[in-house]
Design brief:
The chain is about 55% helix and about 15% strand. It is an alpha/beta fold. The structure holds zinc ion.
Length: about 210
């Protein structure tokens, strides 16, 4: 049995920061499919060519990349999936993995409204060097100069990205909800307030498990 937390949230929900905090608190290893595939593309020319052509990497390859990663983990190491599965077809991969590795899973969805997401994204500054997200201009901790991203200025584009994401992730959230494995977290308020809610909910979940 392996402990798994899956983290979901639209752009602007603070998912990246919250994921870091969960990972730290529970010493979980995070698995982000995008990063895994980027790593893979460095050593696998076939994957690199697929990515270069702008096509989606086939599900079998995604599954294999995740399996290799899980196989490299310690026996009791928990996993934090960031934004996976993000589509109906990735959900099928997830089910196979959950079966094979005997996942004990909980999905956490950080909920904010589309309007709030739009507000946060269109006012955010990003560090081009490390990806840190801030609400105003200035210097990043890493020394990079915080800047507005070109595609964060395009409101219609942001809304479209958000709606596509919501549409794609819906089957996944429905799946976890039906299994009683979904925790919804109110994503409004400060980063720290949201962290407190998330960690509180996860703590309660593990406490409940320990009783069984
Ligand atoms: Zn930085």
């Amino acid at each position: 049995m392996r402990d798994v937390i899956l983290l979901f949230g639209i752009q602007g929900s603070g998912k990246g920061t919250q994921g870091e905090r969960i990972k730290e608190k529970y010493s979980f290893t995070d698995i982000t499919v995008g990063n895994l595939l980027r790593e893979k593309a460095k050593v696998d020319t076939r994957i690199r060519d697929i990515q270069k052509s702008g096509k989606l990497v086939p599900d079998e390859d995604v599954q294999k990349a995740i399996e290799e990663k899980i196989d490299s983990l310690g026996e009791n190491e928990g996993i934090l999936f960031d934004g996976f599965p993000r589509s109906a077809s990735q959900l099928e991969i997830y089910k196979k993995l959950a079966d094979k590795y005997d996942f004990q899973a909980k999905a956490v969805s950080i909920d904010i409204s589309e309007e709030e997401a739009l507000k946060r994204i269109s006012t955010r500054f990003v560090c081009p060097k490390c990806g840190f997200i801030a609400i105003g201009p200035g210097k990043c901790k890493c020394g990079g100069e915080l800047e507005r991203r070109e595609d964060d200025r395009d409101e219609a584009g942001i809304m479209q990205r958000i709606r596509i994401f919501i549409n794609d992730t819906q089957p996944t959230l429905d799946y976890f909800e039906a299994r009683g494995e979904l925790i919804r977290i109110d994503g409004m308020g400060s980063m720290d307030e949201v962290t407190e809610r998330i960690l509180g909910a996860i703590k309660a979940y593990y406490k409940e498990l320990a009783k069984v």
